[in-house]
Design goal:
The chain is α+β, with helices and mostly antiparallel strands. It has 2 helices and 2 strands, in the order αββα. The chain has helices spanning 6-15, 39-52; strands at 20-24, 29-33. A two-stranded antiparallel ribbon has the order 1-2. α1 runs antiparallel to α2.
Length: 71
């Protein structure tokens, strides 16, 4: 398994309100897509699960909406 706990982290992200979560790139980064309102809750849930799995993790909440391709 490339990232032990990945499925568990994605599950808690969804349970906290994310539309989904996935591994980004070749590893070490997981990202979740969510609403602005749920972003902090999702980040905290993911970090809490990592802690339960014995992994130190940092979170970053990007509040600026994507603008690529938007007019």
């Amino acid at each position: 398994q490339l990232v032990p706990g990945l499925e568990s982290i994605c599950d808690v992200a969804a349970a906290a309100g994310a539309f989904g979560a996935t591994l980004s790139g070749s590893g070490s980064t997981l990202m979740a897509i969510t609403t602005q309102e749920a972003a902090t809750r999702v980040a905290e849930a993911m970090q809490r699960r990592w802690s339960e799995l014995g992994v130190q993790a940092e979170t970053l909440v990007q509040r600026r909406p994507a603008t690529v391709g938007l007019i």
